[in-house]
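Appendix C reproduces, verbatim, an entry submitted by the partner laboratory led by Prof. M.T., so that reviewers can inspect both the input and the predicted structure.
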Amino acid sequence: MGTPQTTAGRTGLEALLARPAEALVALDFDGTLADIVPDPEQARAHPGAVAALAALAPKVAAVAVITGRPADVAVRFAGVAGVEGLDHLVVLGHYGAERWDAVTGAVHAPEPHPGIAAVRAELPGVLAEYETWTEDKGHALAVHTRRAADPQAAFDALRGPLGELAARHGLIVEPGRLVLELRPPGMDKGVALTEFVREIGATSVLYAGDDLGDLAAYAAVEKLRTQDEDAVPGLLICSGSEVPELADRADLALPGPGAVVAYLRDLADRLA
């Protein structure tokens, strides 16, 4: 297993190893459990990911996949439904607005923000001059520029217009790797992670992510492990090095989803 480079990270790992039955292992999907691909609809869990999760989940309080994707899409792309050993798995989709529990196989979700329908109607006009692909997530809309002739130039050019469109309808824009997501405020991975830690009474937490959307979860772990009372030790893992804002704050950097899966497998073995 890789050794965390920070004191806080080593403390978080030690706490997890000492009391695994009270630990939460939380993970992003795209870029963390699945490789980033040109077409997001083709993303699938990295080979070995499901087996690693199935080996780890029975030994900890819970495993949570926290993603911007709809919960049912993440479940399908990850291939985790009905897998033996994953009773302790929860998928928090749409940054926690949706929830799928492995025990019931059911998704619980609120009605979409009214601004989503308005943005959906106006978005084609804003994007007419750009070579983009829009991913309709139901509770959010993601504009990908990966297919453009100059993906970064298209991304930079669209930040302003999409920001204005989102603001007119009470939404915000969340930037990622060549993707701009328009979604309601108050939906972020930090809120979802903190609420789930409190729900299950976790005494330690591991979080792994790869993109700007994971910064809120990083901030949540940092807050949990430094609060004056009832601090929750935590380990922050960065998958890949494409997002310096994340890599610079990680306790442990791993090369990508393959290395994350190997780390989870090693962690499960260590908890045997």
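Residues 25 and 167 are 34 Å apart (CA to CA). Additional entries are available on request from the coordinating office.
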